[in-house]
Amino acid sequence: MDGKTVVVTGGTDGMGRGVALARLGRGDEVAIVGRNAEKGAAFLDAAARLGAAGRAHFVLADLSLVAETRRVIGEIGTLFPKIDALVLCARHYRSTRSVTEEGFESNFALFYLSRFLMSYGMTDLLDAADEPMILNVCGPGAGPGEIRWNDLGFERNYHGTDAMMQGGLLNDLLGVGFAVNRPSRKVRYVLLNPGTVATSFSGEYDPETEAQIESLRQAATPIEKGIEPILAMLDDPPAEPISASMMGEPISLAGPSFDLEAARRLYVETEKLLSAVPASPRQPYVMSGGVDAETAGGARLPDLRHRGNHPARRQRAAVGGLGDAGRR
After folding, report:
1. How far is CA 327 from CA 1, 3, 223, 310, 313, in A?
2. Nearest CA-CA partner of 167 in 148, 180, 182, 183
3. Could you tell me which of 95, 121, 97, 127 has the C-alpha nearest to residue 109?
4. For a FRET experiment, which of 3, 11, 48, 260 has its CA 20 to 30 Å from that of 37?
5. Residues 123, 126, 130, 131: what is their CA dihedral angle, to the nearest 10 degrees?
C-alpha cells in the first residue's frame, strides 16, 4: 500500500518531531514546518539515517506570523498534490506577554491563528486524498476555562497559563466551527489531548513557572509512548466529521467547550482579524532530502532543493521572540 502524505507543524522538536520520524519510518512522505533552519537540517539528517531522505521535507517559517503561515500553505502546495493528514503541534509558552510584528499576542497567533489558517487553507490538498484528516494536538478535556471575547490578546492581566488555556479552548471551537462550516465533506477534524508528555516544553518561563515545568518533566510520559494515540489515529481516521479524545479515550462533544454558537462567533471574529493582515513579502524556502551541503551557523544545511535566500541569512532575518521549538 502506498504511504501517506503528512504535514506536521511543530515538527523540529518534541512530539511533532517524533510523529514525523515515526511516519517516515512507516513509509510516508512528511513535511515539517518550523523557524529554525539548524533543527530542520537535523530532522533531514535523521530522515536520511532512516533511509527516507527522498520523503522528508522542511519548510522554514515563523508560524506566529499570519503572512508567513499563508506563505507556508502555498509552499506545501508546491510540494504535494494531496495531503492525507495535517498534524498541528506548534505552540510556545510565555510567562511575559509578547506581541508579534503584526500586532497579535504571541500565544493567540501561534497556538490559534496559525492552526485556523492551516486548517482552512489546506482544504483543497486534503480533499484530494481518500481519507483526509486534520489532527489538532491541543487540550480537549482539560477542564473549564474562560474565553476573553473582549480581550482575546490578553492586554489586561496577562498570565501565560491563562493565555495558553484560552488557546486550547479556541482550538476546541476551531474544530467545531470547521465541522459546522464544512469547507470539505471529506476531511475529519480530530481534537487530541495527549496528556503530559516529556516533549520540549517549549517556552520562556519565569522562575516559578520553570520550577513547575521541571516537576512536569520528571513525571511526564516519554515521547515514544505519548505519540502512540496520534499514530493510531493517523492509521485509522475516525468516521465522524469531528471527534475529540484524551490519551486515546473519546471525549463527549456535549459540553460548553464545544458550543456551536461560540464556534460561529469565533469564526466571524477570526476572519475579521485576519482580513487586515497583508500578504507576506518574504521569499519561500524549502529544504528536502539529504544534507550533503554547506555549513551555516554550525549546522549542515541541505542544498538539494531550496528557493529564496540563503538559509543562514534567513535565519538571522527571522523575527525574534518566540522559541525555536514552539514555532517549530
Report:
1. 33, 27, 19, 20, 18
2. 148
3. 97
4. 3
5. -90
Please write the tens of the pLDDT for every residue from 119-166. 999 999 999 999 999 999 998 977 777 899 999 999 999 999 899 999
- How far apart (Å, rounded) are the C-alpha atoms in residues 235 and 229? 10
CATH 3.40.50.720 describes domain 5-317: yes
pLDDT tens for each residue of 172-217: 999 999 999 999 999 999 999 998 887 766 767 678 877 876 777 7
pLDDT recorded at residue 174: 98
pLDDT of res. 212: 74
Cα–Cα distance between 160 and 211 in angstroms, integer? Answer: 15
Give the long-range contacts of residues 236-242, CB within 8 A, separation 24 or more: 237/85, 237/131, 237/132, 237/133, 237/188, 237/190, 238/133, 238/188, 238/190, 239/188, 240/188, 241/179, 241/182, 241/188, 241/189, 242/175, 242/176, 242/178, 242/179, 242/188, 242/189, 242/190, 242/191
d(CA 161, CA 287): 34
CA angle at 101 for the pair 96 and 105, rounded to the nearest 5°: 40
List of the chain residues with pLDDT < 50:
1, 291-328
φ, ψ of residue 164 to 5 degrees: the values are -70, -40
Q: At residue 170, what is the residue type? A: L
Assess contact for 43 and 289: CB atoms under 8 A.
no
Measured distance CA(223)–CA(198) in Å, rounded: 6
pLDDT at residue 6, as a whole number? 98
Burial class (CB in 10 A: 0-12, 13-18, 19+), 34: buried
